[in-house]
Write the structure tokens for this entry.
Amino acid sequence: MFLTSSATASAAEIFTLSTMGFPHVTRVEEPTRGILSDILGKRLPNGWTVGLSNEVYTSSDGMVYEGVGIPPDIETPVFVPGNFYPGLKLAVDKAVNYLV
């Protein structure tokens, strides 16, 4: 079991995706950010640089979560605006109660 939030992105999201195939792993979280792919950087002739989404990551069942985020098994708010620590404590308590 592990916690992620809407702030979970990039490599942490790819790790989250890789755990989805294991039945003993439970995600207690909000949906993740949905930005899994790596960036391919290119320089344009005028000197500007551009970054393009360069990869497609899929779950073991073929789902693509780019742009929408990875859904949780147990949804709970993690970072509540203006209530940071109590929201985090609530998420951790919910995860602990699930284990007991």
The first strand starts at residue 2 and ends at 4.
